[in-house]
Amino acid sequence: MTSPSSSPIQNGYANQHDLTWSRSEKAIARKAFDAALKRELHEVIQEAKQMASQMQEPSNLWELEHYLTERRKQIDRTYDYRYSQLTLVFGKLLCESRLGEEGLRGLRENKLKSIRSYAKFLAEMDAA
After folding, report:
1. pLDDT at 7 over 50
2. How many helices and strands (H and E) does the chain possess?
3. Statement: the pTM of the whole predicted model exceeds 0.85
């Protein structure tokens, strides 16, 4: 359990619905989102190719199918490009090192604070 002082609500990410996105911030967010998604999908492709190249038994085909299904579900849960969700998405990607803060350069400080706060919260939850 987190202490009240480290509560994500108090740290600011709970107000993501109140954030407005300027045209330039939307462009930055789209670029960062697309780049992170592309990197993750590239990892999935590489892993699927490796699994396919090592297939020896028919059952391996279903293992590959299971892997792809699970990864698709994970990616679908993570990559939600609704503006009301982007600070959470970016916070998760930042926590998982799938996105660096340099990709978010140009966002207003209130958004960056919210993203960092959520990333820190997730890291603390993982460590607990």
Report:
1. no
2. 5, 0
3. no
User: Which residues fall within 8 angstroms of residue 48, CB to CB, at 6 or more apart?
Assistant: 64, 67, 68
| C-alpha distances out from residue 64 to 11, 23, 111, Å | 41, 41, 38
Domain that holds residue 91: 19-127
> Is 58 part of a structural domain of the chain?
yes
Domain for residue 98, yes or no? yes
CA–CA distances in Å: residue 86 to residues 30, 38, 63, 78, 108: 10, 17, 32, 10, 13
pLDDT exceeds 50 at position 14: no
How many domains does the chain fold into? 1
- Supply the mean pLDDT for the chain: 90
In a domain, 69, yes or no: yes
Q: CA–CA distance from 42 to each of 33, 35, 37, 73, 83 (Å)?
A: 14, 10, 8, 16, 25
Is 4 a member of any domain?
A: no
The string of pLDDT tens digits covering residues 35-55 is 999 999 999 999 999 999 999
Q: Which of 88, 97, 118 is nearest to 17 (CA)?
A: 88
